[in-house]
Amino acid sequence: MGADAAAGHGPGHGPAVRLRGLVKRFGPVQAVAGIDLDVGRGRFLGLVGPNGAGKTTTLSMATGLLRPDGGTAEVDGVDVWRDPLEAKRRTGVLPEGLRLLERLSGGELLTFTGRLRGMPEPALGQRVADLLGTLGLADAGPQLVVDYSTGMRKKVALACALLHNPPVLFLDEPFEAVDPVSARTIREVLRAYTGRGGTVVLSSHVMELVERLCDDVAVIAGGRVLAAGTVEQVRGGRPLEEVFVDLVGGGRREASELGWLGTT
Ligand SMILES: Nc1ncnc2c1ncn2[C@@H]1O[C@H](COP(=O)(O)OP(=O)(O)OP(=O)(O)O)[C@@H](O)[C@H]1O
């Protein structure tokens, strides 16, 4: 065992995700202003924050999609920017925006993704069939992704993230536009995954869902972590939404100021 591994560092060691001093600026906008965050193995972390808080920018830097201006990101003990290929082997990502290969069917997209990841047949074919079946996409058959509904696109993108059974999943708004039956299935799939030791980081605007599903939560605003811990710690006995609004809601104008709305 090397000195790093003995000290709890290096591939397969330490927290599943370790972010240190992550910083990103877009011109005059400081999108991420120094984020430190650890996510333990087998934990389910919800990343919440108002629009423009820096959630997607943080997830993009943690998954090798956007180069940080400063700081480090490690996944499963691998530095994402020093060893991106190894980090990406250990990561499944449902990115924002869902840019997919539109002229393939769901099955073709998954098979192509699996081959890019070097997955062998026939195990790949079995996993593709399992994922399409479980996520309710099998009936879409040869339909092309370009003709999928928004929720179907989300589900096939999620299937791509799960396909290689990575130890860590990063999911940007995985439940957005997904119907309640599929949402329940996805919750069960993700719970089973963390139950077996997998780690999930998801961003969401739905506090109730984070409260119900996640072990841990990090509230970010203005590119900084305002609160982080177990859901119970951060809630402190109150509904998470209330705590969230107290933390980030300052400076908003009252809805009642739109007194003209609805009057004739
Ligand atoms: N490519 C870009 N170019 C310029 N500014 C950007 C870019 N990406 C993000 N930003 C800015 O960085 C800030 C953080 O954006 P980000 O998308 O990370 O927020 P978010 O928390 O994911 O928001 P939302 O909940 O609305 O998706 C915002 O002010 C946004 O306008």
From TrEMBL:
Record keyword Metal-binding present: no
Compartment list: Cell membrane
InterPro entries: AAA+_ATPase (IPR003593), ABC_transporter-like_ATP-bd (IPR003439), ABC_transporter_ATP-binding (IPR050763), P-loop_NTPase (IPR027417)
A GO molecular-function descriptor: ATP binding
Entry-linked CDD domains: ABC_DR_subfamily_A
Residues in ABC transporter domain copies: 17-247
Listed name of the protein: ABC transporter ATP-binding protein
SUPFAM superfamilies the record matches: P-loop containing nucleoside triphosphate hydrolases
Record keywords: Antibiotic resistance, ATP-binding, Nucleotide-binding, Transport
Pfam families, per the entry: ABC_tran
Membrane topology value: Peripheral membrane protein
